[in-house]
Amino acid sequence: GGRYQVVRDNLHVKTVWIGEGTSAIRYILVYNPQQAERDRAEREAILAALKNELLAIKDLDAEPHRKAVCQLLAHKTYGRYLSTDEQGHPYIDQSKIDADARLDGKYLLRTSDDTLSAEEVALGYKQLLEVENAFRTLKTTLDLRPVYHRLEDRIRAHVLLCWLALLLIRVAEYRTGQTWRTLRSELQRMHVGEFAGPDGRVRQRTEITAEQHQIFKALKIKEPPRVFQVTPAPKPQV
Q1: Longest dimension (CA), the chain
Q2: DSSP reduced 3-state for 95
Q3: Strand order in the sheet with 25-31
Q4: List of E strands, 93-183
Q5: Residue 173: CB partners within 8 Å, gap ≥ 6?
Q6: 131: which residues sit within 8 A by CB, 6+ positions away?
Q7: What would the pLDDT profile of 177-223 be if each residue is shown by its tens digit?
């Protein structure tokens, strides 16, 4: 019960107490409306695929049908929405869908510090996730390790360059409001082609998409030149 406190557009919090007196346990219920919409869309896609699976096994005979039913019920994704009737036939259970929908965009935090507000607990947890994500980015995306240097100055330079790269990633994410994975995927669609003809060679990039234009605008970066290099054909010897 009770109302959520809106901390940010995508962060709503509410304090929940379980128990009474000294044995009471304090939880912080966090709700993200954007994540709730993503969870709903993902569930609808799963249910659509599940309906197709049920139609596919409907006309199977005894043993193949039982095997297919067992596989669906044991499936990590499909199984949580299924129940069986008295004849053992699987069906999509609406009560399970409703129970799952009540958790859309929500997660639960527990704290023993009564001096922290619900907002401080939620923001502190998000900062912890961001720090852990930064370490993952350093170790995987930016290849901080393994370090193939032996001299101390080179090791320090390697770590510093990785840290600066991480800083640039965070600046790009902050200014655009998109994840680095999304930014990189969009920008990697840009290519440079080389075109040759009787008059010479030209190296020219592809057209800027609307999404790429918005990224450059948000980052206050000039778009790459349309033509990178023009090499005229050599003049014939007289």
Answers
A1: 102
A2: helix
A3: 5-8, 11-18, 25-31, 106-110
A4: 106-110
A5: 179, 180, 183
A6: none
A7: 888 889 999 999 999 999 998 889 999 999 999 999 999 999 999 99
